[in-house]
Amino acid sequence: MASVLVPVAYIIVVFGSLFIISFYYRKQTASRIPEPYFTSHPERNTYVTLLQKTDPPTPEVVLKSALVRRAIADVLRVMRIREDKPALQTLLQKGSVGDDLLNSLLAAEKEMEAEIIEVMNEANSFVDGWGPIIFPTANEMIANEKMRVVFEQTNLLLIFTRKKIWSEGPEHP
Amino acid sequence: MSHSHSHAPGESHTHSHGPPQPQPQPQALPTADPAFLAVIEADFRPVTLTVAADNTTLLCESHKLEKCSACNLDYVNLNRLSKILAQNPNLKAPPPGNVISKNLSQAVNNTKEEGNAFYKMHKHREALGRYTMAASIAVQRPPWESNQLMREELSTVISNRSASYFESEDYISALADAETVIAIRRNWSKGHFRKARALVGLGALDEAIEALQVGLAFEPNNAELSAYLQDVQGMMKGGRQS
Predict the structure, then answer these.
(1) Has UniProt tagged this entry with the keyword Lipid biosynthesis (chain B) (predicted)?
(2) B180 at the A interface (CB within 8 A)?
(3) Fewer CB atoms inside 10 Å of the end CB: C or N, chain A?
(4) Residue ranges of domains in chain B, CATH in brackets
């Protein structure tokens, strides 16, 4: 005669194993480090390399310029993260991508926050009060550079337009 | 480094807490999360570079170039900024954007006015020379200044240059300049107007109408654009009938 313990034991084994497996699986997923969203940060590497030079130590103008370039790169990354995030979330909802990519993005976002604070502290170490100004400066420099590039490429644009118009010659009176 | 703004017993601070002072008090910046700082530091890869003898430029270690495609390094912009800082030793850091160099605006404006004078006298070669000079001065503006100024100055000068090319019947150059103006300042009606005029000069009437419609999309109530649109449409009808 089967005792009443057998079905009870069966239930305990089934649910117990489900619980144990899900516990270990969740622990494993949580501890998995997401893939880096961005590849290396060349401007940051440049800045730290310059900072570490002692023989001879880098001149301060160069260090400050390197810090500003680092700030510019950070601003561009933050803009990219902000653009990519809603798109990724939509894709995730539709099921086109796994959530690994979103985890990478969120990790990158947190890392950027730390990076920005770090840059502000470094800026303050040069000149007191520079920290809050360096990022607006970076914004202005990005716009300035875009305009400068457009202007310098006017010549190229001229050559290109000329070629295009002449190749379309027969259609126009 | 930033000082902590605590008033705990035993911590002294240098500023007093009187009535609000004109300059902003330096706030204590938060320190970054150490876990992420560790990630950042782990990500560090040293770069092979060297400082040039003039103490202001960076070059790649192996080829001694500012912009080296072999090493995948481009220090042109960094060196430009560091040269500007080196030339102004009293400038300890790029100031906020509202600190502007007035002489530059003055110079650009004067050169532009000279160009306008030549334009009115129909001396277009001199006018073009002046406008080009004004544009190159405008581009010399320190990059940390509010970009609105450079945007307006540069777009005005190039727009005038485009008009000058149009009057000298060099429609292709006029078109290239108009495209530049639109790329710099998209919502300005004059840029689209100049582009349409250049296209009409080249005989591409439908493209001119398109350009005018784009301009009107940015500024729906612009009288100049609407009037010119009607002109061009009239020209097209006239062209079809003849």
Answers:
(1) no
(2) yes
(3) N
(4) 51-80 (no CATH), 102-241 (1.25.40.10)
